[in-house]
Write a structure and sequence with these properties.
The protein has one domain. The protein is an all-alpha fold. The protein contains four helices and no strands. Helix content is 84%, strand content 0%. The protein starts with a helix and ends with a helix. This is Permease.
Length: 124
C-alpha cells in the first residue's frame, strides 16, 4: 500500500459492504450475520492503518514501541473477552455455535489490536 489514501479507500469499501449486509439482514427481519462482524473489523483495521501509516512508514523506535505496547494492551483485552465469553456460555446466558463464537472472537481480536495501536500512538 502506497499511501494513507489507499487505506482509507479500502476502509470505505469495507464500511459500505458492512452497512449493506447489516441493512439487508435487518430489513429481512433476521439477525446480523457473523461475517458482518469480520467485515466491520476489516473496516477498523483499514482506517487504523490509514491513521498509523506515517508512523509505520518510518522504521524507528517509536514504531516498534507502538506495536509492542499495542499488542501488550490487546493481549489483556483478549483475556477479558475470553473470560466474558466463557462466563456467558457456561452460565447459559447466550447460546451460539462454535463458528459464530470464532467469528466474533476473531473480529474482536483484529479490532482490538489495531485500536490499541491507535490509542498508544496518540499517547506517545
Amino acid at each position: 500500500m502506497e499511501s494513507r489514501l489507499t487505506f482509507y479507500i479500502c476502509g470505505g469499501l469495507f464500511l459500505i459492504m458492512t452497512l449493506f449486509m447489516a441493512v439487508i439482514a435487518i430489513s429481512a427481519g433476521e439477525s446480523i450475520l457473523p461475517q458482518t462482524w469480520t467485515l466491520l473489523s476489516m473496516t477498523v483495521m483499514s482506517f487504523s492503518m490509514g491513521y498509523l501509516y506515517p508512523q509505520f512508514k518510518q522504521k524507528d523506535e517509536r514504531m516498534k514501541m507502538i506495536r509492542q505496547k499495542g499488542l501488550f494492551y490487546a493481549y489483556f483485552a483478549l483475556i477479558v473477552y475470553f473470560f466474558i465469553f466463557f462466563l456467558l456460555l457456561g452460565l447459559g446466558i447466550i447460546d451460539i455455535s462454535a463458528l459464530e463464537l470464532m467469528e466474533i472472537l476473531s473480529s474482536l481480536t483484529i479490532s482490538t489490536v489495531f485500536l490499541s495501536m491507535v490509542y498508544v500512538s496518540k499517547r506517545i
